[in-house]
Amino acid sequence: MVTSIAMRPRRGRAVLVAAALGMLWAPAAFAAPAKDARTGGWLGEDLPLPLPVRSPQDLAVKAVIERQYLLFNLLASGKIAWDAGDYATAAAKWETLLRLPGVDAEIDRHIRPLAAEARAKAGGTAAMLPPVPSAPAASVVTSPPTAPVSSGAVGTMPSVLASATAADRVTISGTVSGGGAAGPGGAVLWLRRTDGRTPRPAPARGKIVSQRGKTFIPRVLAVTVGTKVDFRNDDEIFHNVFSLSRPNDFDTGLYKAGGSYTQTFKQPGPIQLLCNIHSSMIGYVYVVDTPYYAQADAGGAFSIKGVPTGEYELGAWHEAASKIAKQTLTVGPGGLRGVSIQIAGDKKAPAFVPDKSGRPRQPQLGY
Amino acid sequence: MKPGTARTAVAAACAVALGAGCTDETAPERARFWTLFDFTAALGTSEPIARGTTTFPDGVLAEEFVSRSPEGNVTANVATAFSEGGTAAYLTTEIWSRYDAVWVQPMYILVGAWDEKSPGANRVPGADPIFSVGRESSFYSPYWQVFYAVVPEGKDPARYTSAHRILDDGLALHPGPGRICALQPHEMEIRRERPFFGDKIGNVKVDARAWLDGEVVWYMDFGSDRFRFDASGVVAESPLYVFARRDERGRRVPIGLPTVGGTGGRVDFGALGQPAFGSLWRAHTALLPTASDGTPVAGVFVPNSLPELRKALSDENTGLKGVRVPPVSAAAEAKPGVQPLDYLLRVALNPACFEDVAAFPDACRWLDSEEAIRTNLSHTAIVRGDVTLACAFVTYGGRPVPNP
Amino acid sequence: MRRRPPVIVIPVVGVAIVLALPVWVAAPTAWAQALPEIVEEESANEPVGYTPADTAAATASPASTLVLTGYVDVGFVNAQGDGTSFAPGDTRLPADYGVDPFATAVNSRGDAASTASGGRFVNGFLPYSAGVGGRPSFLINTINVDVRFTAPTAPVMVFTRLQLVPRAGGDAGNDLDGDGTRVVAEQAFGRITPFESTELALAVGKFDSVFGIEYLENQANLRTGITPSLIARYTTGQSIGAKLFYRLQIAPLWSALSLNAAATTSGTMVTSLQTPHASLTGVPVGSARLGYELNLPRVQVKAGASGLVGPRNDQADADSLQRAWGVDVRVHWFGLAFSGEYLVLDQDRGAGPKRTGLGQFPLPSAFHVEGFYAQLAYGRDVTLGPLRRATVYARGEQRHARFEGFTPVKVRRLTAGLRLDLWDSLALKGEVLMNREVEGAPTVENDVYATSVVWTW
To answer: Higher model confidence: residue C248 or residue A109?
Structure first.
């Protein structure tokens, strides 16, 4: 095609060049699932939603809203793609929907055959889908009823959304103790298989660390690798969030009230959050590389859901512990209750927090 | 901020913040000192030296210490005084106000080799001494301790023009005696005879050359072993009695009589008979007594051979106040063995003895020594002052002071 | 068949590839679908984070109501000669006018190994003395306790810093040598930050200097090295008064401007030179620093200009002034830290006796000094057993000082050292100070070898 261009008349040549380039573009344009543009803000998958967060309760409610929003968008965008004949996109959307934990059985009943048909029409390999959910039954006992959201500690989803997990997925629950004077609250716990490969977790969505009242809210946040965390300034003053925790070190730079900065954490481990302006601000993000993780509430209670049976190592990190506590577990079909793990409280908060060049700052100076 | 501005600001702030009752304290008086350079600069001005001190409330005119000839040459004056019952004369080179102490500083004399028995025998020919501290320093004084610095072989003596070079090169230093050397303006002279008496003073070397921090300076050399100093370098003081009266404001003001040099209880002489005291004086005002009607009791002796002086000192307006100038019996002053000029301007508490042939001069209660003053005046009449003076004797006991 | 001129074909092919390339890069999923998929499992767990209900109760947090911290600084030092800068043959008086008696510093306080002048008269220009002379010696440099109280419902903070300084010398109450054991209330102040939306802080009490930057690392556990610079004695003293700090952030430029200003009894001189505990003149000393910060992600540049004016607080005349100005700069770049300051200070001749934190002396002479330091440090995080960080540093500095009428003294010093940080609370430091008398002061052997172990709790 290209070699014949040279001898054509000039105008015809230009048309053929455009056509050639257009054909080069076309496969990419039709093969890639097009990212839906925001259409008035209701059809789309982009999260997080611009809802204000002023307290831990706000965070919990926002998570609920965003889940429902995600379900709706996957349903609707798959249908729109189906109607437009874009079966690959429709298949991808509905397969993503079906892979979400805790999807309602009725939704599954309607969408699963459509997803299969769309996949058949589009070609390609269908992603592995979870089995058809069984009839709603008493779920495996998860953690004890969580403390009221108003206490500020939320370690599990509200019970209305607690899934009836698949038969081969169980829940591990227990209590972590220790943590020194700060108590065990906020401890991050995770499970890694010792009898096989631990699956790589999908990035979590909608994670926010707010700065308000010169504090980080939440103070400790656990996320999976690849998660984008939105650092949002809900104060009336400037902040400059940074971390020197390698390899996840970052620097948001200065941003004012209402601004935000998104950082993707690609490596597991703890990340100490500091503010270059306010030396009293300190927080943590802990990045796990397993989908089986949780955070303890103020009393130390935790619950890890969706765990396949097998042999595991339970790890626990706390900001007041100098070492990660570890414990081996055998997870059977009935799950595990009453797991107890002790973390040390041997690490105090640093006397001098550094600025982003690593220089220690005296807190009484305020600069 | 200009001088005075800070104080004014404080006063204003006090007035605003605290209202009435807040007073601005008088600024404290500064320690100061004057050298021959300052005396020379004050010549011809109305700016007195040491004004505001307890000893000289109105200060002293520079003309007391230096004078300028019609040709413009400046000469340091010699002042007459009494000490230990005899006549003396001194030259004032420095005055300190509100100094509690004066310190001795090192001066260096270059020698080619060290001879303990004869330290000065190996002086490097043509090498000038090196002073260590200049007159701009608050710690300058004309009192030095000589250190003989042995110039190493191979080193050029001309290199040594400052103290730190001598110290840097690690020259061997051998301590010697104290020496009085007063920095002077170049080409300043001194009066070579005692006023009124005309007798010659000791051999004071003037306009001698030396080095200070790499620059040439000039000095008067009064010789060695003329003062004592302690282990921490503080020069010993002797009291100098300045006769005073009360003025109309009740202040003690000098009468203008010759001073009396005390010994501080230690009569010390050097190898050649030069006084080893009385080079650093602390002024003490000695208030002469008055009668109940306020008239002076003490009298100053003026021989009949000096009628103009008598007339000048007796003048009601310009003469001496606080002391009488009583008549002197010609027969008394003609007694055998009496040299009237020896008693010129000497003060006696019983001046009636001047007319008493039998009493004069032995029965006169002369105030011509430290002991006489302390014995004859009440202790409240003598007040230690805040002025110290460098006044090395140039004559003592009627004889010139030798200059070793 | 006619030959196609390649000159036209090749650019067209090239343009097509160039235009297609970003599309290829931007559309990975199109290609990825053809490759084996990496399975990512959606987690059934979505913790929303943890925030303690009562931050005041969580004493692991620096925002707690009452926080006690501190450090212990122990050293081993070896100073050459007799530990002073006095030369045996130098009998000029005052003895401290002809040398730099601060040169033989052995710890972060700036204490000299010795200030013994052999009985020669000194006039109050000496530092505190560690009293170890020229003998190698262990030394407890400082035992420090900081108490910080933050009011939970008001923008108020109270801070005190108490230090115990054990020494071998005499009674600290009449300690002209400055080598007596003493308890120092180094700082005690209250601070309010009245506005949430503004970086404005007002403090009243006894606090750190606002001049320059060296006061920021006045304490042994904060300082990169061991000893302070040759100009620290003029800029890092604590004094009593009122202080204001204001900072304006300029986000688009990643910058900030700051003003730090204070009115205090003695300005910024260290206690051994001027007492901070009372105003001898009744007029405070004003000092201030105007600063600029550029805070980029990997590079920070901070520069400032400082000034000081007010009566000398070592004598009683309010018209005898001291004036100083200085400039400072800090650059942090990928682990390299450079800091430097330049200072000029003038003091008028004073009146009356001279009073310092060490006692009373005869005469407050006029004084002039110019000095500077420049320090380069490179630190690297290291994980090797307990080792967390290693820092090497070197500092060059000079002080050119003159007391009126006295020979001007110029000294230089080169300092080099190593700092190792172990765990989170232990710092080991070793340093060598090479002092050189350039002008005016006689050459003496007064180099110092110092080590310091600082436990922070």
So the answer is: C248
CATH for C66-456? 2.40.160.10
Please indicate if any CB of chain B lies within 8 Å of the CB of C346: no
What is the nearest CA distance from C84 to chain B, expressed in angstroms? 16
In chain C, the residue whose alpha carbon lies closest to the alpha carbon of A360 is C222
Assess whether pLDDT exceeds 70 at residue B137: yes
Q: Which chains touch B (3 or more CB pairs under 8 A)?
A: C
Burial class (CB in 10 A: 0-12, 13-18, 19+), C168: middle
At residue C1, does pLDDT exceed 60?
A: no
C-alpha span between B354 and B356 (Å, rounded): 6
- pLDDT for A43 beyond 60: no
A296 to chain C, minimum CA–CA distance in Å?
A: 8
Number of domains within chain B: 1
Mean confidence (pLDDT) of chain A? 78
Which tops the pLDDT comparison, A26 or B72? B72
Q: How many CB atoms lie within 10 A of CB B203?
A: 15
Measured CA to CA, the distance from residue C340 to residue C397 in angstroms comes to 9
The answer, for C99 touching chain B at a CB cutoff of 8 Å, is no
H helix or E strand, kind and range, residue A24: helix A10-31
Contact status of B10 with chain C (Cβ, < 8 Å)? yes
**Cα(C399)–Cα(C373) distance, rounded to whole angstroms?**
9
pLDDT, tens only, A173-189: 999 999 888 889 999 99
Q: Does B305 touch chain C (CB under 8 A)?
A: no
For chain B, give the mean pLDDT.
88
Select, from the ranges A119-123, A157-161, B332-336, C290-294, the one with the highest average predicted confidence (pLDDT): C290-294
- Is B16 in a helix, a strand, or coil? helix
Domain residues for the domain of B148 are: 105-224
ipTM score for this prediction:
0.82
Of A3, A33, A357, the CB nearest to C4: A3
Q: What is the pLDDT of residues C168-222, one digit of tens each?
A: 876 555 556 677 899 999 999 999 999 988 899 999 999 999 999 999 999 999 9
In a domain, B59, yes or no: no
Distance from CA of C204 to the nearest CA of B (A): 18
**In CATH, what number does A149-347 get?**
2.60.40.420
Give yes or no for residue A153 having a pLDDT over 70: no
> Using alpha carbons only, what angle is made at residue B370 by residues B367 and B372, rounded to the nearest 5 degrees?
45
Q: Write down the domain spans for chain A.
A: 2-31, 56-122, 149-347
Is A280 an 8 Å CB contact of chain C? yes
* Nearest residue of B to residue C403, measured between CA atoms: B137
Mean pLDDT of chain C: 88
Half-sphere exposure of C56 (CA within 13 A, CB side): 8
* Shortest Cα distance, chain B CAs vs residue C281, angstroms: 9
Q: Tell me, what DSSP letter sits at residue C107?
A: S
Separation of CA A180 from chain center: 29
Residue B187 inside a domain? The answer is yes
